[in-house]
Design goal:
The protein is mainly β. It has one helix spanning 105-108, and strands at 29-31, 34-36, 46-47, 57-59, 62-65, 72-78, 81-89, 93-99, 110-114, 145-152, 155-160, 163-169, 198-202, 209-218. It has one domain (3-14, 31-218): Exo-inulinase, domain 1 (Jelly Rolls, Sandwich), CATH 2.60.120. The strands form two sheets. Strands 1, 2, 4, 5, 7, 10, 11, 12 and 14 form a nine-stranded antiparallel sheet that branches. The protein has a five-stranded antiparallel sheet with strand order 3-6-13-8-9. It is globular, with a radius of gyration of 17 Å.
């Protein structure tokens, strides 16, 4: 096992618009190198897992989901990127990245856990769910928190509220159902073999959860 594959607490010290009449609320607009994923007005550019209309609500520039809304997904797919997202939650949710099939999100996408403060463990806020525990809990209760998630090739890094809390190298996940340190996980295929592009998603896990200021910048 290479130490680089597991989170290291030492990391804490650092860290297109053609046509004469564009739509009133475009799904995404380019701001410099950044693409805004949520326009703050409606859910243009987002779908449910089946590709239909989402039940999430939008108010005052915030998108909110609650029990029964289902997960919500970007229509677009992304490979290598930096993703910024702010969240505020009453409980369990998650940010999915590179999800090939939203109907099978657990087995085709990686989740960065959204939760209230706790842990740290492989299921607590800041974790790469069931894969890597955060080195510390850098979240804030009853407040807005910010993720910066970078995915480039096999490398995935999670920064929470300005602190690098989690990192993994997918190439180190060579066995189905097992992490590099020998601990079990729920994945039926070795993560090194997963697609390295897919949809971005926000999870409905029964809690009331809100997201805002979602933007992504593609990496070369």
């Amino acid at each position: 096992m290479k130490p680089f594959a597991i989170v290291c607490s030492a990391l804490f010290a650092v860290t297109t618009l053609g046509g004469a009449t564009p739509p009133a609320t475009p799904a995404a607009k380019v701001v410099g190198e950044w693409t805004v994923l949520f326009n703050g007005k409606d859910l243009t550019g987002w779908t449910n897992a089946a590709g239909g209309e989402s039940k999430w609500a939008v108010e005052d520039g915030v998108m909110t989901g609650k029990k029964g809304c289902g997960d919500i997904w970007t229509k677009d797919r992304f490979g290598d990127f930096v993703l910024e997202v702010e969240f505020k939650t009453t409980g369990n949710s998650g940010v999915f990245i590179r999800t090939d099939n939203p109907k099978d999100n657990v087995q085709t996408g990686i989740e960065i856990q959204v939760e209230r403060p706790g842990g740290p463990d492989r299921h607590s806020v800041g974790s790469l769910y069931d894969l890597v525990a955060p080195g510390k809990d850098a979240s804030k209760a009853d407040a807005w928190n910010k993720y910066v998630i970078t995915a480039q090739g096999p490398q995935i890094t999670v920064v929470l509220n300005g602190e690098t809390v989690c990192h993994m190298d997918l190439d180190q996940w060579t066995q189905a159902g097992k992490n590099p340190d020998g601990s079990p996980n729920k994945f039926k295929r070795a993560l090194k073999d997963w697609k390295r592009e897919g949809h971005l998603g926000l999870q409905d896990h029964g809690a009331v959860v809100s997201y805002r200021n979602l933007r992504v910048r593609k990496l070369p």
